[in-house]
Structures are given as structure tokens and as C-alpha cells.
Design a protein that fits this description.
Helix content: 55-70%
Distance between the termini: 49 Å
Strand content: 5-15%
CATH architecture of one domain: Roll
CATH topology of one domain: Chitinase A, domain 3
Number of strands: 13
Strand order of the largest sheet: 4-3-6-5
Length: 506
């Protein structure tokens, strides 16, 4: 009795000591966040930005990201087929990376194979792309619209024949403006398949990937990447086979000759076929697997053994904290990106009324350091024409002046005036400088001596479109702040300030 009591006490002491070593730093919607988890995220953020961040300030960023993940899951975004597929693909790549890493740590031959893969992976192509990034939950109708739009762009490219300026199309239609070096296994398989198969200078037809819809042009390549890719895949297969043999040895793979012989002779058995990690794999288990593989019994058995070995490795990784956290972090990144697009990016791009309203209420934030002049400088051949122009422009909005002037001075009257419309800073135009900014200069033209300077001096832009990028950025910050207040009200957040103080500073 005393012994049992002592064991219980020791267990509780161990639990308490562990809790003291890794206490809860905060709870988000009831979920505990351990100090070790928070510290790891804090250090990863530092490694990305290379800038030291106050722990309390980072805690706010950490909480905001986690709340966005909760919001995404509450909206069911984690159940979207494309999100699930991307997570599954990432998980498979991570599993393969861990398996191949183990193989690379083995024999000298395996090390050479790993080096060969690295050399193949250094092969790269330099591409320009016309890309439309699409949200994960895009509807079929909207996807079809985007496909038709990209088809139209492609037809316009083809119509220009050899004189095509692909860079110009990129600037006009692409979400990605810069040329990029693409290495094997750095992008989606759909993207790489096209990129590495294109000759230099050729333009691809539109194609889809999990990221969106693309048209690409290969500008340069460092080597024959098609050959390099094939070599890499061959070496990768060799690495996988080496990993398979290593794992069989590690997990104590032991075949049962009697069971295997009966299976090969009769096509079925109830006996044990092999033991792996101390577990028996029987003929009944093989029978369920064989229904999915329509090949000979020997090949079925080979496939069954290989799948069982890698599944066993997979099950062990399910219990590995680093492996699980990497997958969770990737899923969280996807969810934050998608929920942010739905809550912020998409509404901002589509709601011009809201942008105009935000600009009007915050107009003073966008004032220039020095005033500018918005209007027109018009040099007329005679006084009569100058009066006519001045009278006509009084009835027009400033935005209408350029089109009106083109119409007024076309054909027969084209020589009656020279004009320039726009936004002028001090020093841009000598006639504006003289009349508006009270500077010297601006002598009359001999051929057109009657000069009009019409418009008004402004302290800031008159319309949000003139500073659209800045307004969109500020409006996004405003919406994000409001959204965070909503999320903090909906999901309870508790911070243990005493534990937060113990987080190791970098």
C-alpha cells in the first residue's frame, strides 16, 4: 500500500516539475499555449526578420495570428478540398524529406546519391509569368471567368507574333511582376512541369495549378534542366529504395517463410507474412490490400511490404512533435492567408465606395509636404481663342479638361494652341511657377503669346485613386484592427504575464 502511494506521489511530483519547466503562457479560446511553443514561434519570427522584437509586442502578433486561424476554422475553411489537398501534399513532401534524409546519412553510395540530387536541384530556369492567384474556395463559375480572361490574354499574345512584348503583358495582367529563378521542387509540380519543358523564349499556353492560372515564358536556363530533372528523379528513386532497406533493418523486418510460401503457392494465407516493429502482418491484412492492386501476387506482396514499412514510419512521425508542428504551422499559414483574403483583401479591391469614404475622412493624412497645382497650361495663338477656351473650361470639371481640349483643337484648329494638363509641383512648369508659385520665368511664346494657367492650388490629392496604393494599405490596417477587436471579443484570450516575463529574450 505504501509502495503504491509512493509511486502515485512520485508521478504527481514529476508532472508538477514538468509543468514548472514548460508552463502555460496563454490560453486562446481555451486552448493552452505552452511556453516552449511560444518561444519557438518567437525565435522563428526573429530568424525570418532578423530584427529583435519585444516579447509583449510579439505576443500580440502571435495571438492575432492564432485568432485568425480560429476564425478560418469557424468558417469551415479547413474543410475546403483544395486546402486539405495542399496540407496532404505538404505532409507527403515532409515525410519524404525525412525519409530521404535518413537514407543520405547511410552508406557512401547513398551520400553520393544525395550529392547528385543536390547537383540536379541546382539546375534552374529564369521565367516571367502572367499569373492570376486564386483563392482556395473559388467557385466553379468564377474559375471559368478567370480561365476565359487568361485565354483572351494568350490570344492577344499570339496575335502579336514575333513582336510580342511579354514583359508589357506581365505588367498589365499579372499578380506577379518580377522574373524568378525556378529550381526543382521549389514550386508546384504543375508549374515546374511546364517551366522545365519550355525552350528559351517560348510562351506556354494557359495552365492551372493549386496557386492559380499561369502563362509563362522561359527567359534563360543554366543547363539542360529536362535532363537534370530526369536524373534527379532517378536518383530520388534510388534514395527511396535505400531508405526502404534502412527502415526495414531499423524496425526489425523479419519475413515468415511458411506464410510467404503458402501465399505465393495458393494466392492467399491466414498465416503471418512478416514482423515489423514487433507487430505481425498477416495474410488477412494482405488480402485487404491486394484488392486495390491488380498485379501478380509477388508484386502485390512487394508493394504491401513497402507500404507497410513507410506507413510504420508515418505512424511514428505522427507522434513526433516537430513533424506535427510543422504540418500545423503550414495549415495555419494557409488558413490565415485565405481568411485574410476573404475578410480584407477581396473587400478592399472591390469596394471603391468604402475607399473613397475612408480617403475623405482621412484626407489630411495624405497631404503633400508642399502644395501642388492641378489644372492646365494653355498657349493660344490669339486673344479670341484664349477667351473662348477660358469660358468653355469654366463649365467643365477639371477631370474632363484633357478630353475636351483634344476635341477642341483637333483637325483644322490643331495649330491654334499648345496645352498641358495635369498635376504640377513647383519646378515642373515655368508658367505655373510664375503665376501660382510666384517665381521668375515663364516668358510668352512668340507663336502663341496668350498663355492661360487655369486650375487650383492643392495641399493634397483630390481623389483616392491618385494615392490608391497607400489608401488601400491604410484601409486594410483599419479593417484589420476592427476585425481583431471582433475576434478578441468572440474568442477569449488569457495571458499569464508572469510566465510571459520568463520567455528567453533573443
Amino acid at each position: 500500500m505504501r509502495r503504491n502511494l509512493l509511486i502515485v506521489c512520485l508521478c504527481w511530483v514529476s508532472i508538477l516539475l514538468f509543468a514548472q519547466q514548460d508552463p502555460v503562457v496563454m490560453r486562446i479560446n481555451g486552448t493552452p499555449i505552452m511556453r516552449s511553443e511560444f518561444e519557438r514561434a518567437y525565435r522563428e519570427e526573429y530568424q525570418k526578420s532578423r530584427q529583435k522584437c519585444d516579447v509583449k509586442a510579439y505576443a500580440d502578433l502571435f495571438i492575432n495570428q492564432r485568432l485568425k486561424v480560429w476564425a478560418a476554422k469557424s468558417a469551415g475553411l479547413d474543410t475546403l478540398p483544395l486546402v486539405k489537398k495542399q496540407v496532404a501534399d505538404f505532409r507527403a513532401q515532409l515525410l519524404q524529406a525525412k525519409v530521404l534524409k535518413r537514407a543520405g546519412e547511410g552508406s557512401g553510395a547513398a551520400t553520393c546519391q544525395s550529392k547528385a540530387v543536390g547537383e540536379a536541384a541546382s539546375e534552374q530556369v529564369y521565367v516571367l509569368q502572367i499569373t492570376r492567384y486564386l483563392p482556395q474556395n473559388i467557385t466553379t463559375n468564377r474559375f471559368r471567368v478567370e480561365e476565359l480572361r487568361m485565354d483572351s490574354v494568350y490570344k492577344a499574345l499570339v496575335a502579336q507574333s514575333t513582336s510580342v512584348d511579354f514583359q508589357q503583358f506581365v505588367q498589365l495582367f499579372s499578380d506577379e511582376k518580377k522574373a524568378l529563378w525556378i529550381q526543382p521542387l521549389s514550386r508546384t509540380k504543375e508549374f515546374e512541369k511546364v517551366a522545365f519543358s519550355l525552350p528559351v523564349g517560348e510562351i506556354s499556353q494557359p495552365f492551372a495549378s493549386p496557386e492559380g492560372i499561369h502563362i509563362i515564358q522561359v527567359i534563360d536556363r543554366q543547363a539542360d534542366s529536362g535532363v537534370a530533372i530526369q536524373q534527379m528523379l532517378t536518383k530520388e528513386d534510388q534514395l527511396i529504395n535505400q531508405a526502404y532497406e534502412d527502415l526495414k533493418s531499423e524496425y526489425g523486418y523479419t519475413p515468415d517463410p511458411k506464410g510467404v510460401a503458402e501465399l505465393l503457392e495458393k494466392g492467399e494465407t491466414t498465416q503471418t507474412l512478416f514482423v515489423l516493429g514487433g507487430e505481425a502482418y498477416t495474410g488477412e491484412m494482405f488480402k485487404r490490400f491486394a484488392q486495390t492492386a491488380d498485379v501478380g501476387v509477388q508484386k502485390q506482396l512487394d508493394y504491401f511490404i513497402k507500404r507497410s514499412v513507410f506507413n510504420y514510419k508515418n505512424r511514428l512521425l505522427e507522434k513526433n512533435a516537430d513533424f506535427c508542428q510543422a504540418i500545423q504551422a503550414y495549415q495555419s499559414e494557409l488558413l490565415v492567408r485565405e481568411v485574410t483574403y476573404q475578410k480584407l483583401d477581396n473587400p478592399i479591391k472591390s469596394d471603391t465606395t468604402a475607399l473613397r469614404t475612408y480617403f475623405q475622412f482621412h484626407r489630411s493624412n495624405y497631404r503633400w509636404e508642399t502644395p501642388r497645382f492641378r489644372g492646365a497650361v494653355i498657349h493660344c495663338a490669339d486673344k479670341k481663342m484664349a477667351k473662348k477656351v477660358k469660358k468653355a473650361l469654366k463649365k467643365k470639371a477639371v477631370e474632363e479638361w484633357p478630353s475636351f481640349m483634344k476635341e477642341l483643337f483637333k483637325s483644322s484648329q490643331s495649330g491654334m494652341a499648345h496645352w498641358e494638363c495635369g498635376l504640377f509641383a513647383e519646378g515642373d512648369n515655368s508658367y505655373v511657377d510664375k503665376k501660382i508659385f510666384k517665381k521668375k520665368g515663364g516668358d510668352p511664346l512668340k507663336s502663341h503669346p496668350f498663355t492661360l494657367v487655369l486650375g487650383e492650388k492643392q495641399k493634397g490629392p483630390g481623389h483616392y485613386a491618385e494615392v490608391a496604393e497607400v489608401v488601400e494599405r491604410d484601409y486594410k490596417t483599419f479593417l484589420n484592427t476592427y476585425w481583431m477587436k471582433q475576434l478578441r471579443a468572440a474568442f477569449k484570450v488569457e495571458i499569464n504575464q508572469e510566465v510571459l516575463k520568463t520567455v528567453n529574450n533573443i
